[in-house]
Design a protein that fits this description.
With 757 residues, the protein is an alpha+beta fold. 30% of the residues lie in helices and 27% in strands. The radius of gyration is 29 Å and the shape is globular.
């Protein structure tokens, strides 16, 4: 039987029998070798039914985030294997990993959608979400981080912080999520610990707390030294097939390499001093009990201090290893349980109003052909049980949940209940979408609203439930769009159903119908995003659709400040509507308002307008922002000041909005318009031999080169150019269509820069 067939057969056994016994953690040796155990009996793999269901303090909800090809999925695969939940080590290149189960993921070797898995490690329950690294699927990272308590940031040790690393790090910071850093691929010839640490400091503005020193470098990387315990962890792998379960733990002594001893000693001293600077309690302990010898501080006290520093987000623990070579993953699992927070250590003010009642957030929806919609929920309080009715506050609807499952990528196990702090998968919720707040009943929501009102001691604005709804998931605006057509009109209804299902799964996908042509427009986050959607429609729904050419989502703005007035006088039936509007528009810095448009009123007008009239004025202004006067693109970067609104008695709000919209259109035309192209910062990594041709191509695309740096002294990196790849030289440039020089000037500049290199 071939290796691939054997792996497939073993996974079938695991899925069918839902076995209950298995390996306990990792195996290591202290003074003697433990025998390896390569049996294919059913009791080798743990069942999801045997996942520990501990106290909330033993739960860890974490995400794996990184740049493309840093090793997220490979690291996740090793975690599942060492914890005993898979029989064989999956490989991204072979297309047999647990979390990359979509056909498109296995064919392309990339993660497209986030996948949740649940497993246990040393009496802790770990709910882990593997996220994509491609910028087109950044929403998957956003909605995962929204419900997680901690994150593991994976880095390619030869590249340090890369473009998408910055994006996912900013997302984690936005949600105030403590992180642990894992420097992966330490076995690469160009792996550089100091370079990676420095890039974390400089690019992420973070405070790395180094906990391990690598033993060996490149192909000779064999393990790490734990700076807390002064122990050496060595993986003596005899062949490429060695699974890395057995490793040696040995205390450092004078027989070890003197250079290594010196490096470790200096690094441990620096670690103790750094933690003392960040944690007052630890500093006081050192000065009180260990002032004569800081190095004598117990490792458990140092670990507790590092945990406090991590939870306070004052520093980020840094570990290293090589997931593909099966080295360093078990200490990473230990670090997850030791340093990242439990759900009860993350403060959610809103949740306390529900007390012991159910409060959960729907953060992801999948469609299963047999089960229907599958909704992922993060439970913040209370207990979730199948065959019960739940209330959706956002939709103001009550639904019945038929089944409750533990998520394990595309394999799930039914369970009788799920407690607070966990991530659950539900069946039967047909109306719930991403971002909805789920509670046990209307009465529970009303009780929580009363508690919230009593706590604040003031009347609530915006309705009874305005402040008891969990904040949802921020969905970015699409930047690419194209037309999509079915093979025949007979398939139009099927295509609409497919697009509705896909939109429910992926809120970053937008679908609209062009009012002039009647064509269906597909709007997405990038070329790859739309390509994947097209392929899924073909594979999953059996519809051979045709995509039109991709187009860019342009915007419009104005050049000058203009004041204007307009009067609408219209008689409808026996009722006369008269309204006069005076307003001013002016251009504002796009970056200062985030691309949005502002609406303000004069102080005098602010106090005079009734709420209904003010809302009508704002609606009129917003409607004019949707379609600019030049080419009909949405408008941005404009500040509108409403100076005066005069309304005759009997004039309807609709007429007020119509007059404001007409006045705005007049002002925008008078102010002079300009079309804006998307602006982005781009980092390109390329081999030195291709530098000149790449610079020339960038010049033709109106790119402004801001900086050119050499990443490493050694040569021979990949020259495949994507948005970001791995290589020698790093280019930071800005594609700025309306500020850049003309192409001839740019060409001259870039050729000179290429000549200097």
């Amino acid at each position: 039987m071939s290796g691939r067939a054997l792996q497939t057969f073993s996974r079938m056994i695991w899925g069918r029998y839902l076995l209950t016994a298995g390996l306990q953690g990792c195996r290591c040796r202290l003074s003697c070798h433990l025998k390896r155990h390569y049996s294919f009996l059913p009791d080798d793999v743990k069942s999801l039914r045997a996942v520990v269901n501990p106290d909330i303090s033993k739960i860890r909800n974490i995400g794996i985030m990184a740049h493309i090809d840093a090793g997220k999925t490979t690291t996740t695969e090793r975690m599942l294997y060492y914890s005993g939940y898979t029989r064989a080590l999956g490989d991204v290149d072979d297309g047999d990993t647990v979390t990359d189960f979509m056909a498109q993921e296995r064919e392309r070797g990339i993660t497209i959608q986030s996948a949740a898995v649940t497993f246990d490690w040393k009496s802790h329950r770990i709910n882990l979400i593997d996220t994509p690294g491609h910028v087109d699927f950044t929403l998957e990272v956003e909605r995962a981080l929204r419900v997680l308590d901690g994150a593991v940031a994976v880095f390619d040790a030869s590249a340090g912080v890369e473009a998408q690393t910055l994006t996912v790090w900013r997302q984690a910071e936005k949600h105030h999520i403590p992180c642990v850093c894992f420097l992966n691929k330490m076995d690469k010839p160009a792996a550089n610990l100091s370079f990676s640490i420095e890039s974390i400091k400089q690019k992420l503005k973070a405070n790395p707390v180094l906990l391990q020193i690598p033993v060996g470098s490149g192909k000779n990387f064999t393990g790490v030294v734990d700076l807390l315990t002064n122990q050496k962890l060595i993986w003596k792998l005899k062949s490429m097939r060695d699974d890395g379960r057995v490793f040696e733990i040995k205390a450092l002594d004078q027989s070890d390499d003197p250079e290594l001893l010196q490096v470790v000693g200096e690094a441990r001293t620096a670690l103790i001093e750094q933690v003392a600077d960040l944690d007052d309690e630890f500093a006081e302990l050192l000065l009180t009990n260990f002032s004569d010898n800081f190095d004598a501080v117990p490792s458990i006290k140092l670990q507790e201090a590092i945990r406090r520093v991590t939870l306070a987000r004052k520093g980020v623990p840094v570990l290293c290893g090589s997931s593909l070579r099966n080295k360093g993953v078990q200490p990473l699992l230990d670090a997850i349980t030791a340093y990242l927070p439990a759900p009860n250590e993350r403060h959610h003010d809103l949740v306390r109003w529900y007390k012991d009642d159910l409060c959960a957030l729907a953060f992801k929806v999948l469609h299963d052909k047999q089960r229907g919609p599958l909704v992922f929920l993060r439970i913040y309080s209370g207990t979730l049980k199948p065959q019960t009715a739940i209330h959706n506050i956002n939709r103001n609807s009550t639904e019945r949940m038929s089944r409750l499952l533990v998520p394990f990528a595309d394999q799930h196990v039914e369970i009788p209940s799920m407690t607070a702090g966990n991530i659950a998968l539900t069946v039967g919720l047909k109306q719930t979408v991403t971002g909805d707040t789920i509670v046990s009943s209307k009465a529970a929501a009303a009780a929580a609203a009363r508690r919230a009102q009593n706590d604040s001691g003031a009347e609530k604005k915006g309705g009874e439930h305005a402040n008891i709804i969990l904040s949802g998931v921020e969905v970015p605006d699409p930047v690419f769009f194209c037309t999509i057509e079915p093979p025949s009109m007979a398939k139009q209804a099927d295509l609409e159903n497919a697009l509705n299902c896909l939109q429910r799964e992926d809120p970053s996908l937008k679908v609209r119908v062009d009012p002039d042509s009647g064509q269906t427009i597909l709007c997405g986050m990038g070329e790859l995003h739309i390509e994947i959607i097209h392929d899924r429609i073909r594979r999953e729904y059996g519809i051979e659709t045709h995509l039109g050419p991709l187009q860019v989502a342009y915007r419009e703005t104005i050049l000058n400040e203009v004041s204007t007035t307009d009067t609408l006088d219209r008689t409808v039936g026996e009722r006369r509507h008269v309204v006069t509007v005076e307003l001013a528009v002016r251009p504002v810095d796009i970056t200062s308002v985030g691309g949005s448009c502002e609406i303000t009123f004069t102080e005098k007008l602010e106090g005079q307008l009734l709420p209904g009239v003010k809302e009508a004025v704002e609606n009129g202004v917003h409607s004019s922002y949707l379609q600019g006067p030049l080419l009909g693109y949405p408008v941005q970067g404009i500040s509108t000041l409403i100076q005066d609104v005069t309304i005759e008695p009997g004039t309807s709000a609709a007429m007020v909005s119509a007059c404001v919209s007409r006045c705005m259109l007049k002002a925008l035309r008078l102010a002079g318009g300009q079309v804006l192209e998307p602006v982005m910062s781009l980092e390109v990594t390329v081999g030195e031999e291709h530098l000149s041709s790449v610079l020339g191509d960038l010049a033709q695309r109106r790119g402004t080169v801001r900086d050119i740096q050499s990443r490493h002294d050694n040569k021979g990196y990949s020259t495949i150019l994507r948005t970001v790849t791995s290589g020698n030289a790093t280019f930071s440039l800005e594609l700025d269509a309306y500020e850049a020089m003309n192409p001839q000037e740019q060409n001259t500049l870039l050729k000179r820069m290429a000549g200097l290199l």
